[in-house]
Amino acid sequence: MKVTSKQIAEICGVTRGTVDRALHNRPGIHAATRDKILKVAAELGYRPHFLAQSLVKGRTKTLGVILFDIHNRIFAQLYHSFEAEARRRGYVVYLVLSNKDKELEIQYINSLLDRQVDGIAITPVNFGTEFASLLAKAQAPVVTFGNRVSADIPFVWIDDRQAIAESVRHIYAKGYRSLIYVSPPLRLKGKQNIGTPEQRHLGLLDACGELGDLRATVVTDRDFVPAVVRALEETEGKPAVLCSSDVYALEIVREFKQRNIRVPGQAGVMGFDNIDTLQYVDPPLATVDYNVDEIGRLAAELLIRRIEGQVIPPRTNVPHRIVDRESL
User: Does residue 196 form part of some domain?
Assistant: First the structure.
């Protein structure tokens, strides 16, 4: 049974106000009385009613994070750094996974708000004005990352469009004139928020527009590995396979090894994200690197600053760089 401050007051023969002053180290109480109250509280295993205190203070010191999943190491790394920064600032974090289910995502938003979290960070799968209005009207600040919702809701990420354009130019500079671009989420355009894949695709189009003799094939199939193999068979010369995620690139490299397709002898492969598991891959995978830990840390910092009433920028970009390795 939960011990209350009223019970402590009765045992010690004092008022609840005196107990409250002792438990919160406030003035207006004799040292001997404070020591007695603290001793009784410790013996009974008293813990303060956190929610009741939160109602008084107007904050629960909790944050919500909604991610697609944690199968992709990017999200696992990002959450780890977010939680560490939140904890450093005195917050506890609730993590929930939408599994890219739009209805579940909204349920989780409402559930976190019902639990009176002070703020929410989200990689959104929903999009459009109705969803943006839902977030804008939420009784807690919201920060997004990965996919953007609107210019009015703060966003922390990288410049995906520029990063892919630079990747294509890098591939071109290495002598490739045929490119297979792999981005399965593009098939979901108009069905869910694919802001990041769309920006990366625009970067591809930008670079291809500059490089007149580069031939590009875009693969958006859910079952993308066979589609890439077919595209490879139909491509003249040695192509490069540029994937919008390291996860896709690793699947391609594995399939190529099973088919005895040499990388980079017969086809180059490049990913995106520089996930930490790449250190175990052979050949080492070329990719785009950005500081995932910094994104998570910044998302937590900016969200907490907004909770505290500070003005934060509508968009915060983290730098990226091309990592050239033996797979190209």
Answer: yes
